[in-house]
Design brief:
The complex is a heterodimer of chains A (about 625) and B (about 260). By secondary structure, chain A is mostly helical. Chain A is about 70% helix and about 0% strand. Chain A has a two-stranded antiparallel sheet. In chain A, helix 4 packs across helix 20, helix 7 packs across helix 20 and helix 17 packs antiparallel against helix 22. Chain B is globular. In chain B, helix 6 links the parallel strand 9 and strand 10. The chains are: A mainly alpha (about 625), B alpha/beta (about 260).
Chain lengths: ~625, ~260
């Protein structure tokens, strides 16, 4: 069907393959899936209170996970990282604590903070230097460091204050100033901003629109004979129509008005996307006939059957019944689990049907894609009719209809325009930029929604929500390390020493120095977390942090970092931390027995490792 | 002697012992700019030791290495690189999961930035990598693709292009064709001719005389650590080369045995 242009034997990658070939994509999709799961069963998921809790839990874990991800990309482990967070917290308290019989060094914070940082750097340097000098596995060296730190914490605590905990970070000079930096809080209830919802809407809708355009840009072939201006005009009209529809939806407050608004939005979006495609993309040639081959029918049939299973599971049990059912589930949890499994497998099977249909003809692909859209509409109405909760009746319903609409338009445009089967770096570049801007716009929308409240919410008496400063440290740390890993020589060398140490040494990468610096980076992260803990808890236990190094490694692996090094991302580590936080907090939020937390984490870890294996195989260009 | 003046790189009675094992004994040869000297030998002939001495990984026990007539002593691979001797190892010194451009510039990334805050000039790195590969006759569509997705011949080309770009004067190729198929080997041999044309001195290590003969100007034959002689192309035929490589008489005996077995 496709004329082989260029000289390559490699099959051309589709747009989703190109977008998804990033280490953190699996984690991102996993995070969305887990969030949806808990959103469906637990009240705090989806409100600001829950977000504050999850981000708070994720932030100290995430700072470590991001640093540990980088170390693991560099091919090493640090088992002392958990214990050093507690050790650093304890050290700083001992440095600032008042002098006296049971006291500390009595230093002001301005001295104690850099001093403890120097100690952290020394620990990191020691780990790296030992690993390089002895050429022993870092597992063994840092296990030794772990025991040294664990012992030192308990020993010094007993020696100096004769307790297994060291207390009173607030005794230090300069506490108030640094408390604001490390443990300040943003009280959402005190920040009322009534245009918040408008910003949120513009951000999220604009973000979705940009990502949709990006997918089109990366999927279709550019017009061979220049842009067609009439399409641009149609695009603008369509966008105007969509905005008008959204306005109608917001102004009116009754069912007829809602439906009218939705209809205007649907037509507007179809007109806009068709116009955009007419403007830029090559019209389609051969469409082929509708051919229902065996694999297409099989996968589509199984997919629809799974979605029917979803409906049956939802009907079979009471959504609010939290009584014990089949061990270890409650009835509610069992229902949610079944629905999740059926829903996910249903959509996966339908997408596999699309993949098979693609090999037969454009018409078949369009038909199966349309089936997904129809099934989504049907599910949306089912969920609305089943549920009493507002989040299902309006939010989920609206989102599902919007998704169904975009999928339907996508199916039709696939028939009208030509898919690109050759590389076009200009189009891919533009697509990449659009995705970035879209994601940032949506993120800004969400951030405003979380940070500000509106008068209506205050009047409704929502509980107070506070966001901690540690979240800012987490976000900032992730952003900086993502930049370092992707854009600097140090980042390049990190990948290199983890991917092939001998090779990088041969071409002149200072491998030993790079690895040592990575150990120091982890120690620096532990120092930051230690300070955050000291200011939050005021008192540090001798056992604080011990054993948490495995949580960091789990978060890093879930985030797409390869256990064997050479592949991964810092950003993925932060997503991994959020997943671990959601899994940890989601269980009590859902009022299930939290004894099962580790079982849940173990399953997530296993799934993540399996997913990462296949992502890596694709990145290496291995077939099957 | 086909060329005039001092050779770019010259080895004079180089000998290497590992303890009481003689790895290399009295090896002499030379290579001029714009020429290819092939080092041939069967497994265990001392080819690896030969490369490692030239690359600065090991030091010779006796003998002299001269670059442009000046005696040199390498104590590390960096020293060899500094005088312009670049080695492309059999395992290619590449990181398969990293992109083509990152591999191309690994260890010498071009940076820009303010003061101590420096980042990689990605646009520049990508365009240079693409350009240098094009000079080698390879069209890399996307320099972002991982090196692991390239074919063996393309990977060799990245390594050769990289060495050339970073100012190598002498290029040492360690068995570049041994893991490749017939067509890919042809691609690499063309790169060698291309590098020679660009004025590089190439030392091509191989155990395949059929690959060496068409591209080489000079042939050094090693056998069990001893030099079997260094010949200019006009002084030797490909069959003589093969014979010398396997130790002449040994190969004849083997041939008789094989015939006997087949009859």
């Amino acid at each position: 069907m496709s004329a082989a242009r260029g000289d390559e034997r490699l099959a051309y990658r589709g747009v989703f393959q190109r977008l998804f070939i990033r280490p953190e994509i699996g984690a991102l999709l996993g995070a969305v899936g887990i969030w949806l799961f808990f959103w469906a069963v637990a009240v705090p998921f989806g409100n600001a209170n829950g977000a504050a809790g999850i981000l708070d839990y994720a932030s100290t874990l995430g700072i470590m996970a991001v640093a540990v991800s980088m170390l693991m990309i560099g091919g090493e482990f640090d088992l002392s990282s958990g214990a050093s967070t507690g050790a650093m917290g304890m050290l700083i308290i001992l440095l600032v604590k008042e002098t006296g019989d049971m006291g500390g060094a009595g230093l002001p914070y301005v001295v104690a903070i850099p001093l403890s940082f120097a100690v952290a750097m020394a620990i990191g340097f020691f780990n790296g230097w030992m690993v390089e000098k002895t050429a022993l596995p870092s597992f063994i060296i840092t296990l030794a460091t772990f025991f040294v730190l664990k012992g030192a914490k308990l020993g010094f605590a007993k020696l100096i204050v004769d307790q297994i905990q060291v207390g009173r970070a607030d005794e230090g000079a300069g506490y108030d100033f640094f408390q604001k930096i490390f443990a300040g809080e943003w009280d959402r209830t005190k920040h009322v901003w009534d245009t918040r919802d408008a910003v949120y809407l513009v951000g999220v809708l604009g973000g979705i629109a940009l990502v949709t355009l990006a997918v089109h840009e990366m999927h279709f072939d550019r017009r061979s004979e220049g842009m067609k201006q009439s399409g641009l005009v149609q695009f603008v009209i369509g966008v105007a129509g969509t905005i008008a529809g959204i306005a109608v939806l917001h102004v009116t407050d009754n069912t007829t008005g809602n439906w009218l608004g939705a209809a205007v939005i649907a037509v507007g979006m179809a007109v806009a996307l068709h116009g955009y495609s007419t403007w830029r993309f090559e019209p389609a040639g051969e469409r082929g006939n509708l051919m229902l081959t065996t694999p297409v029918v099989k996968f589509a049939g199984l997919g629809v059957a799974a979605l029917i299973g979803f409906v049956i599971a939802a009907k079979a049990w009471d959504a609010n019944d939290t009584s014990a059912f089949i061990f270890p589930w409650t009835k509610q949890g069992f229902r949610a689990t079944l629905m999740l499994i059926f829903g996910l497998s249903g959509y996966t099977l339908l997408m596999m049907a699309v993949a098979h249909a693609k090999r037969t003809s454009l018409a078949t692909r369009a038909a199966v894609t349309m089936l997904i859209s129809v099934a989504t509409v049907a599910l949306a109405f089912f969920i609305r009719s089943e549920s009493t909760a507002v989040k299902f009746r309006s939010e989920a319903f609206g989102v599902m209809l919007a998704v169904a609409l975009i999928v339907a338009i996508w199916a039709i445009l696939g028939l009208l325009f030509t898919e690109r089967r050759r590389p076009n770096s200009a189009a891919d570049h533009l697509g990449g930029r659009l995705v970035t801007v879209g994601v940032v716009a949506a993120a800004i929308g969400f951030v405003f929604k979380l940070l500000f409240t509106v008068q209506a919410e205050i009047d409704a008496g929502i509980p107070p929500v506070k966001f901690s400063m540690r979240i800012v440290w987490f976000v900032g740390f992730t952003a900086v390390l993502t930049w370092v890993l992707g854009r600097t020589r140090f980042g390049s060398w990190t990948f290199a020493v983890g991917g092939n140490k001998e090779a990088s040494r041969q071409v002149g990468v200072p491998a030993a120095r790079t690895k040592t610096q990575l150990f120091m980076l982890v120690a620096g992260a532990a120092w930051l977390v230690g300070i955050l803990l000291a200011f939050r808890l005021n008192t540090i236990q001798a056992s604080t942090g011990d054993g948490e190094e495995f949580d960091y490694i789990i978060a890093a692996v879930v985030g797409g970092t390869l256990l064997t090094g050479g592949y991964g991302s810092a950003f993925g580590g932060s997503i991994g931390a959020i997943i671990v936080a959601m899994a940890t907090l989601g269980i009590p939020f859902s009022r299930w027995n939290s004894d099962w937390r580790f079982l849940f984490l173990g399953v997530i870890l296993l799934l993540a490792v399996i997913a990462n294996r296949s992502i890596r195989a694709r990145a290496e260009g291995l077939r099957r | 002697m086909t060329s005039s003046g001092t050779p770019l790189l010259e080895l004079d009675n180089v000998t290497k012992y590992y303890g009481n094992i003689i790895a290399l004994k009295d090896v002499s040869t030379h290579v001029n700019a714009g020429e290819v000297t092939c080092v041939l030998g069967d497994n265990g002939a001392g080819k690896s030791t030969f490369i490692k001495i030239l690359a600065g990984v090991h030091q010779q026990t006796e003998g002299d290495i001269r670059v442009n007539g000046e005696s040199v002593q390498f104590s590390s691979p960096r020293d060899a690189l500094a005088v312009g001797i670049a080695t492309v190892y059999q395992d290619l010194a590449m990181v398969p999961l990293m992109s083509v451009w990152r591999n191309f510039f690994l260890g010498a990334e071009p940076t820009k930035g303010i003061g101590p805050l420096k980042w990689i000039d990605q646009a520049k790195a990508k365009s240079i990598a693409k350009e240098e590969m094009a000079k080698m006759g390879i069209d890399i569509r996307d320099t972002e693709q991982p090196v692991g997705t390239l074919s063996g011949g393309e990977r060799q080309s990245v390594a050769i292009a990289r060495a050339g770009y970073f100012g190598a004067k002498v290029l040492i190729l360690d068995e570049p064709t041994s893991a490749l198929g017939v067509k890919q080997s042809g691609v690499v041999l063309k790169r060698i001719v291309e590098a020679r044309r660009q004025g590089l001195a190439v030392i091509f290590i191989t155990h395949n005389p059929r690959h060496a003969y068409p591209v080489g100007n000079r042939f050094l034959i090693l056998n069990r650590g001893h030099s079997m002689g260094s010949f200019a192309k006009e002084d030797i035929s490909v069959d003589e080369l093969t014979g010398l490589m396997a130790g002449g008489a040994e190969l004849e005996a083997l041939e008789h045995e094989l015939h006997a077995a087949l009859d």
